[in-house]
Amino acid sequence: MKYIKRLCFVALIFCQTGSLLSHMKPIKKDGRYYYSSDDTYNHISFFRLLGQLSISPSKWKDKIKSWFNFSKKTNKAYELLNPTQTIPKKESDNLEITWIGHASFLIQIDGFNILTDPIFGDTKAGPITISSRAIAPGIKLEDLPHIDAIVISHNHSDHTDTNALKALGKKYDPTVYVPEGNKELFTSFGFSRVVESTWWEKGQLSKGDKNITFTCLPAYHWSIRFSLSSYRRSLCASWMISTSNKNIYFAGDTAQGPHFKEIAADFPSIDIALMPIGPTCEGENKHKVYHIDAREAVDAFIDLNASCFIPMHYGTFFSEKEMLEYPISVLRAYWEEKETALDNKTLLFARCGQSYRVS
Asked: Mean pLDDT over all residues of the chain?
């Protein structure tokens, strides 16, 4: 009889947590990570590179500008974003968010200070500058408060600033939460506490009587780190940062996919969603296989059923002129178009370098 009771109990648990059984898992094949069986796109293509090299002279002019530090006076995005720099509080019991630029945020809550995908300089491949910053970081590296945790979505160089990470590791030795396959990289940066996770795994950090949970979640992207041999050798992820009464979703880099609805099923109350809206150019999303554009980001936000949308991953680096200016206008227009589905939702354009208290 007692075995029957145990079987009934297990059956009850499976029924109550059925969503756990349907969680999507990354596919690992020959040491490489894939979002799903449909994720067959080869991001590294010689013929595609030739196509990019054959762009018009005006496009090349914009690209060449990105390799040098150009004047902010010629950068309309700089005027549009009106960035500033701030010295943040040492800590905050309330939820305060400061956009540093690109996918880098300082999140302060319950006395914890958390950084997402820190980048404080230009995008580099070793010593080579790939793309210069259009705006300065909203917080200077030296003005950061004590950092307790760093959350990493993937290993691309515009999300992992080598120099900044080495400095952060040396000064604060924070706990770093990384997707599977990235621990060795972050250990090489000098971090002694690196928590490596696959999708749906949780890690917890404590400070006094406060606890914060970091849940590794799916993202539809790809990884590479300065060598062809590293292609797809590490996982890409989004993250949920959770306290006793708040859930903050950090999307990282991702294409559109069913993972947003799955995340919503596990987290029915998401207070903030930090969503990428770039690169967004006129016409069809040319990067659809690994990036959502502004419209798709709104659709993903609706799938998440989150309360507040804060855009990121735009306006920080100069790659093409329209990528700095266009995403904002597209996001505003599409938000109005989806007004019915977005009833009681908030769109917050965070000024780079300004701290926002979010209730």
From this structure: 86
- Give the three-class secondary structure for 219: coil
What pTM, to 2 d.p., does this model score?
Answer: 0.88
List % helix, strand, coil for the chain (3-state, nearest 5): 30, 25, 45
Place of tokens 């019991």: 93
Task: Quickly tell me which residue has 């054959």 as its tokens.
Answer: 54
Residue carrying the six token digits 């939820």: 95
Structural domains counted in the chain: 1
Amino acid at 86: T
Cβ(108)–Cβ(86) below 8 Å: no
Query: Angle, to 10 degrees, between the axis of helix 321-337 and the axis of helix 294-304?
Result: 40
What pLDDT score was predicted for residue 128? 81
Instruction: Report pLDDT digits (tens) over 291-334.
Output: 899 999 999 999 999 999 999 998 888 655 556 678 888 999 99
CATH number, domain at 192?
3.60.15.10
Which DSSP helix (H) or strand (E) runs through 202? strand 202-207
The verdict on residue 32 lying in a domain is no
- Establish if 342 belongs to a structural domain: yes
The two three-digit tokens of residue 27, written as one number: 């596919």
Q: Tell me if the bond preceding 279 is cis, omega within 30° of 0.
A: yes
Beta partners for residue 103, in sequence order: none
pLDDT at residue number 359:
81
Q: What angle do helix axes 294-304 and 259-266 make, rounded to 10 degrees?
A: 30
